[in-house]
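S1.2 Input.
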Amino acid sequence: MKQTAELLLTNGRFLTMEDACPTAEAVAIRAGKLLYVGTADGAKAYTDENTEVIDLEGRVAAPAFTECHTHPSDYAKVMAQLNCRGKHTQSAEALLACIRERAAQTPKGEWIVASGYDETKFREGPIPVTSELLDKAAPEHPLVISRICGHICAMNSMAMRIGGIDEAFLAANPACTGFRDENGRLNGQFSSNVRSQLPIPAVSAERLEEGFLKVQEIYFQNGVTTSADMSVKPDLLSVLQKLEREKRLKLRIGVYYSANTKAFSVSRPNAAETLCLKTGFGSERLRFLGFKYFLDGSMGGKTAAVSVPYLGEPDNFGRFENNQERLNESVLLALNAGVQTAIHAIGDRAIEMALRAYENARDNGADFSALRCRVEHLEIPSEDQIRRIRELKLAVGLSSAFIYSLGDSHITAIGQEWLRHAFPMKTLTENGIPAACNCDCPVCDVNPMLGIYSMVTRTTARGQSFGGKEESVDRIRALQAYTKDAAYLLWCDDMLGTLKEGKNADVVVFEDDYLNVPEERLKDVRVAMTVQNGEIVYRA
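S1.3 Output.
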């Protein structure tokens, strides 16, 4: 007896991302799975009086988005902090006004924790966010604020004094970096690892839970049903497990642990081997996938490790957050334990360090060809580095969404010539290298259309060309980077990423005509509906 559908989406233009059947008119859904994918007439055979039928009225639909590299745990914490993104970072004065408002509502002496500033977007020009500047807004509160990239933080004088962040601290903690003014004095800007040394009260589990549930809804509103959590923190992992037990966790999360510090770089991969913890352990909603390594900072913050100096700063080649020997040891341990690794490498010097770690593992007998090991961001690789990525059978989590959201600051930092082949989606595709796109939320908005717009047009938020269009791809390839290829990177391509009978019923329906809107409007394409496992989790 033929099964009948619980939900039928019909009269649509479905982009299935399946080569054998790239388009369809309808999908029938039962028990969270795709029962039928095909013509509208054919779908009628799977309906009865109990089937909910939704007429898409010709709208374009696709597999729901998979975000291969975001930080929902960090985003949940942002919800509990002062958010200085958007209009609050349009000028230095707007940033200070935002902080003053929070200071007026906060008892004197209590911490103000903020995030999201981007000095490159100030109308006044890139004014450094220093302790002197921040003191103007909150002289009676300890204040720390993270830059939009997450690799730099700034703090006021009270925070530095309470935290003991001074020359002696930096001398005793060589992994921490302080920025200096023209006279060589600490100016209140530091590498992000300094922030963890501050005595900031922990965010409660209740507030983290509340924050994550908001994050989950934002992801669904943007058509995202599955995401990585790169460098998940223990406090939020506990919250996620609680939400899963209570059946309130709907967003699928692939967890990556940080293996970046001296304490963790060896101990965590060792623990994985001892516990026989393998990539994929867990449930459909919450799974362990691997270890995440940071090698450098950000291009906009001029801390990515590059081989040419930043414009106007002849002695600045960025910095490393790891060293080759420790990275080699840790990556080899992880791969021998059968665990996927994902290595943050933006600048070409950092990319080189990542590839040498993988080559060292190969030369020492590790067989990781089936682990889908990753290089993350990959902004400015050389031709030789791309060749080696292909030979090593690595995958790439390409942060092309940076082009629109952060590209203007990258142009200012390093110039157009170096960006001609930045985020090289076209070259990676031509070389047969699995490459998915991501937004690195909360660095950028969790809106895949911004990443798609970036891959297709290579245009920044201010309308500048980002190194030209040599690396642009068409909108179907861009869509594949957020569906089929992203699912591959997160080890869920057996159930997601394409619309195929038997796979999970995860569908995004667009309000606007994705296939035919002019390129310049791709970033404005809206989501009309998001379906996850056959449940409508968002409807405009």
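S1.4 Remarks. The chain has 17 helices and 24 strands.
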